[in-house]
Design goal:
The chain is of the alpha/beta class. It folds into two domains: 56 residues, Orthogonal Bundle (Arc Repressor Mutant, subunit A); 184 residues, 3-Layer(aba) Sandwich (Rossmann fold). Helix content is 38%, strand content 24%. Helix 2 crosses helix 3. The longest helix has 14 residues. The two termini are 22 Å apart.
Length: 255
């Protein structure tokens, strides 16, 4: 399923408010109750929402992410716009590390015409995308391949990355909580992401609006460890103040 614009707005409202009644959603979206119920049913069937009597809330699990195929289709337009914005900021002839995630995969596609890039990645999907660019050298991290999303995790991956110091780490994340913590689900993936951040001169975070106020179990970092944030819409409160306090440069991708 690829959510339509109305369904994406519905998901954004639920993500921002935490839980919403069907009546509130109908009023906010300016549609009938029947339309909202139909949208909610489809989104719940895909695991993008959790239903309760009379309303909906975000998926409650803090221990497991939704499936890669679902994440790939969720806000694909926003991720594509973020990717173009990131690619416009990446200079030719630099070194990068890209981590696991559908947003970093979109960034890889947007970098397909860059030249002189040396890219290290623990994401086999990213490696496959960028290996088609003859002007880009791709280095694949060693470690355990996670079958569900082609990510490479584990201590071998951490040890491999420690050999390098790159210009830019381009990272995706599963969740940004209101306390300013960046979070994910798999502690093995988190260890790799933390190592990636430690071995880069700058850290750029790419996260669409659905990541804000989303819960996840394991802390990766805090906003003050990020240099730039690329997103597809202005973040909700309290994030503008947190970003300003952490001196993170915010880029909102153009429509």
């Amino acid at each position: 399923m690829s959510p339509n614009p109305r369904q994406l707005t519905l998901l954004t409202v639920v993500q921002a408010q935490g839980s919403v009644t069907v009546e509130q959603l109908a009023a906010t979206l300016g549609v009938t109750l029947q339309t909202v119920r139909r949208d909610v049913q489809r989104l719940a069937d895909e695991g993008l929402l959790a239903r309760f009597h009379g309303g909906v809330r975000p998926p409650s699990s803090t221990t497991e992410n939704i499936a890669h195929k679902q994440r790939e289709s969720l806000n694909a337009d926003g991720k594509a716009r973020i990717a173009l914005s990131v690619a416009a900021a990446v200079p030719n002839d630099c070194s990068l590390i890209l981590n696991i995630g559908t947003t970093t995969e979109a960034i890889a596609r947007a970098l397909s015409r860059h030249s002189g890039l040396r890219v290290i990645t623990n994401n086999l999907n990213v490696a496959s995308i960028l290996s088609t660019n003859p002007k880009c050298e791709v280095i694949v991290v060693g470690g355990v391949v996670r079958g569900r999303d082609q990510g490479i995790v584990g201590e071998a991956a951490v040890d491999f990355i420690r050999q390098f110091k790159v210009d830019i780490a381009l990272i995706g994340i599963s969740a940004i909580e209101p306390d300013g913590s960046l979070r994910d689900y798999d502690y093995r993936e988190v260890k790799v992401s933390q190592t990636i951040m430690a071995h880069a001169r700058e850290v750029w975070l790419a996260a669409d609006l659905s990541k804000f106020k989303r819960p996840a179990m394991v802390e990766v970092a805090t906003l003050d460890q990020i240099d730039r944030l690329f997103t597809d819409a202005h973040p909700p409160d309290p994030f503008p103040a947190l970003l300003a306090e952490a001196q993170v440069r915010l880029t909102v991708a153009a429509h």
